[in-house]
Design brief:
Blueprint lengths: L10 E4 L7 H15 L7 E6 L4 H15 L3 E7 L2 H10 L4 E5 L8 E7 L8 H11 L15 E4 L3 H11 L11 E5 L8 H8 L3 E5 L18 H10 L3 E5 L6 E4 L5 E2 L1 H14 L7 E5 L4 H9 L3 E5 L3 H11 L3 E3 L5 E3 L8 H15 L3 H4 L8 E7 L9 H14 L3 E7 L5 E8 L2 H18 L1
Helix pairs in contact: 1-2, 1-4, 5-6, 8-11, 13-14
Amino acid sequence: MVRKYFGTDGIRGRVNQGKMTPEMALRLGLAAGRYFIRGHSGDRVVIGKDTRRSGYMFEQALTAGFVAAGMEVFQVGPMPTPAIAMLTRSMRADLGVMISASHNPHYDNGIKLFGPDGFKLSDTVELEIEKLMDSSLGKYLQPSETLGKARRIDDVAGRYIEFAKSTFPTDMTLEGIKIVIDCAHGAAYKVAPIVLQELGAEVIPIGVSPNGYNINDGYGSTAPEAMCALVVAEGADIGIALDGDADRILMCDENGTVIDGDQIMALIARSWKSRDLLKNNSVVSTVMSNLGLERLLAEDGIDLIRTAVGDRYVVEQMRKNGCNVGGEQSGHIILSDFITTGDGLIAGLQVLVEVIKRQCKVSVACDQFKPVPQLLKNVTFKVKDPLNYAAVKEAIAVGEGRLNGSGRLLIRKSGTEDVMRVMAEGDDEAIVNQVVNNICKVITEVA
C-alpha cells in the first residue's frame, strides 16, 4: 500500500517543505470535505491545533477548503488531540481535524483526521481522500449559495475539562497529592493543570508558556528530565509529562525514576483484570513493547496482542478484538472505556486511581516488572531495500540464532525516512548489544 500524503499518524512533515504546505492543506480540506459531506445543511467539521506558530496557517488553509466544499467549520483553537476526538462525537460533527506534529519540534507540523465516531480514519479512507486530493478538485467547488461557513467556538476547553474529570471516580480525591505536570508548551497547557487542581491535587505546572516555537523544546514526554528533577526538588509524589498534543504520557515516581507506557499498561491491565473490568482478557500493544511486559501479563493469564508501530494500529486491533486497554511503550495509552484515541491525561488519572487504592508510593505501584534488556538503533541507507542483500539476511539469521528463543529481534524500515530500525531484546544484555551492532554494521556496509 503506497500512500503519497498520509503516514502512520496522519500527514506530517517540515513546514513549507515537501508535502506540508498551505496548498496541500487547502486541497486536503476540499477533498476530505467532499468525502464526508452528506449534501444537506449541518455538515460540520471541528478543527483544533496545538501551539505551533504554523498552526494558524494550516488552520486557515483547511478552513478555506472545507468552506469551499460546503461544510460548516468550528475552530476551537489549542486543544489536546483526544479532546478533538471527543468533541467530534459530542458535537455530532462529520469530521474532526487536529493540526499537530505531536512530539516533533516546532518546525514540523501535521494533520490528523477523525471520523464522526471519533476514531482515526482507516487506511482505506485515507487512500480515497488522497485520490481526491490529486484529482481535478475544481469540479467539487460549491456555488456561492451553498458555501459553508466558519466560526470560532470558545467554550470547548470547559467541555474537555469536565469530560476528563468524569473519568476519575467520584468517591476519590487527589487531595494531599503533589503533582508536577509538564505540558511541553503544547496543546494541554491550559486544561491539564486545571483538571488536576479541580480534583484536589497540589499542582506544579511546567511547560505551560507556549510562544509558538518552544513546543517540546526541553519539556514534555520526549524530554522528561526537567519534570524528574523538579519532582525530586519539590518533594512531589509524582510527575506527569505530556507531549505536544497530549495524546501520550510519560511519568516519574517520587524518586524521579521514569515510568514508561509499558509499566502504565501493566498496572492498569492487572488492576482491571482483578476487578473484572479487562475486556477479552487481553492488552494490545506494538512490536516495540518490552518482552518483560508480555511475560508479566502471561503470569496473570492476560494475552498481549502485538501490532505494527503506531497507535492507530493499536486502536484498530482493540476494536477488532473487543479490548479496552492498549498502547505503546512510548506513552500512547488507549483506554477505550473512556476515549477513542490515546489520552495522556486520562491515562495519568487512572494511574493515580491505582496509587490511591493501594495507599502506597508511586514507585511501588508502578514497579510492575523488570524490563528485559532492549536496544534500538537507527541506520541510514541509500540502497532500495537493504533487507534483500544476502549479507544482511545472514546477519539477521545469525542474530536470531544467538538470541535462541530467549529474546526478540525486530527490523523495520521507517515510514517517513530512509532509516532502518534495528531492535533486539533478551535476557543477556551483552548478546543483545552484539546482535544489534552487528546487523547495523552489515547494513551500513551494503548501503
